[in-house]
Task: inverse folding
């Protein structure tokens, strides 16, 4: 079979979330690369600590010896946070090896069915036989987990497209490359914002979008809860109207949430939507 399924993570201050994410992809991955700044710097020059107990957990979990820890200096003071992110993603993908499927997942992202995603990916193996000839990027759909409440989790009610894999990692913005997108019917739970207020404020200062956040975002995030969320709208941290409404999971258990998602018709991606998205992308890049 052409190429390997290489999975990479950028590991930083939210490393504990990898304990939820890694088990969702481990069996289907040929190798898993963890990129960790050797000086424990964030992209904004902040610092973080990874407790030794995490590496002990990782050693015990990695029964098939698939995990490769890749330490390097990923912080460059002269670069913006997004430029640092792009640089690290390129370095990580080069470490993973061009000629394979290069899948990058963040620690706070949990595939509902990674086996299906890999099966969908393998339909396009021809693109990794000569990755420099025609770059391609493969998308799934995020289900954004917005905020924990005492009894459950608020989430953005509509799945959002997100890039996860490519054959040619010439990233221009996060995981995006200048190439045709192939959309697949796969859901990924994304804990981008669902953390403590202190953790979220730290993230907002140190992630790749730190200069893009709208002024009202954090105030609204603090105010909204499971009783009043229907009274609010426009929740996205950059362009608020992109996330119109929230909905609510009456549980915090990720396994239970995955089961709810799999059974929910409202969260399924319609075949017609996928068809027209993919046709549009194919036509757009037909002569490029």
Result:
């Amino acid at each position: 079979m052409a190429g390997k399924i290489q999975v990479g993570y950028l590991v930083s201050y939210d490393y504990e979330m990898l304990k939820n994410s890694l088990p969702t992809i481990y069996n289907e991955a040929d190798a898993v690369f963890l990129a960790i700044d050797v000086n424990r710097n964030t992209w904004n020059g902040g610092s973080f600590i990874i407790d030794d107990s995490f590496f002990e957990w990782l050693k015990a979990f990695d029964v098939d010896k698939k995990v490769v820890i890749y330490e390097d200096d990923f912080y460059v003071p002269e670069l913006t946070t997004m430029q640092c992110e792009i640089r690290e993603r390129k370095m990580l993908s080069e470490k993973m090896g061009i000629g394979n499927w290069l899948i990058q997942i963040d620690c706070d992202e949990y595939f509902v069915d990674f086996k299906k995603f890999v099966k969908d990916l393998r339909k396009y193996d021809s693109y990794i036989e000569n990755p420099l000839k025609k770059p391609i990027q493969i998308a799934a759909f995020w289900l954004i987990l917005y905020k924990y409440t005492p009894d459950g989790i608020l989430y953005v009610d509509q799945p959002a497209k997100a890039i996860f894999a490519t054959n040619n990692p010439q990233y221009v913005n996060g995981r995006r490359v200048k190439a045709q997108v192939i959309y697949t019917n796969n859901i990924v739970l994304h804990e981008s914002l669902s953390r403590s207020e202190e953790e979220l404020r730290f993230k907002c200062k140190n992630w790749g979008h730190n200069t893009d956040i709208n002024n009202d975002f954090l105030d609204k995030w603090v105010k909204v809860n499971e009783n009043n969320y229907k009274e609010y709208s426009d929740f996205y941290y950059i362009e608020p109207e992109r996330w119109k409404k929230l909905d609510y999971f009456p549980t915090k258990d990720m396994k239970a949430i995955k089961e709810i998602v799999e059974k929910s018709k409202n969260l399924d991606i319609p075949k017609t939507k996928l068809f027209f998205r993919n046709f549009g992308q194919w036509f757009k890049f037909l002569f490029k």
The chain has nine helices and twelve strands. Residues 81-96 form the longest helix (16 residues). The two ends are 28 Å apart (CA to CA). The domain at 5-284 is CATH 3.90.550 (Spore Coat Polysaccharide Biosynthesis Protein SpsA; Chain A).
